Target: SRPBCC domain-containing protein
Amino acid sequence: MVDILHRIGVEGSTPEDVYDALTTLDGLTGWWTEQTTGDPGLDGVTEFRFERGGFDMKVVEAVPGRRVLWEVVGGEAEWIGTKIHWDLRQEGPWTVVLFKHEGWREPSEFMHHCSTKWASFLFSLKDFVQNGKGAPAPNDFRIDDWD
Amino acid sequence: MVDILHRIGVEGSTPEDVYDALTTLDGLTGWWTEQTTGDPGLDGVTEFRFERGGFDMKVVEAVPGRRVLWEVVGGEAEWIGTKIHWDLRQEGPWTVVLFKHEGWREPSEFMHHCSTKWASFLFSLKDFVQNGKGAPAPNDFRIDDWD
Model:
């Protein structure tokens, strides 16, 4: 099992601000993909759609201002059953976000791609919370020939 | 042992263009850090310096247009002995870059940070080769409270 790990800081924000961006449709459509539907609260399932397919996430944990955990219940075969952890804490004027996409079966080329694409969406999340404007799909940053 | 994995595509370039950006001082100062000295050719050691410290890399493999492998021989304790793989190939108008920073002893918070920071420098490398202008330190993208 191999994991994708990331860390960003969102300046001038609180963990509650980032938590809202992860647990509401207004937040998720502002930084990940404009085509987001469903229920992003605890025990809900959210459908994220992109030009080439998408993912369904079940919200397994949601602790306000602290932590969100998604389990992938639909989408790309390599993602099914993997988990996405969001851990939030305050460090002075920054909200520190520790991100882990856990449970990949092998370090495939698609996993390399997803690691970098997650970084670009984390920068979008940072911009969305800091400045009110992210770069959600379909206007996301193109990192390679795949998307 | 855990690894950092990434994949970027550099549009309108050849693997030789990216190889040059990885194996010359003009290239490395254009996307990673302006304070780069030493010998980035095979068997050479290159010193990369940042506001807070830096890294010395030995070039262990260098196959023109195909592959570069660095071993970290100086710098942060967590980096010493780790290896950084760059694998290049052409896919139509794209050069695909597979990146692996291999051999971390544990998935520390610093490793989370470095994974995301590498993504930001890979975007800088992409811009440098595509458009002639990267964002090397000290004008790099600030990802969090650490740098």
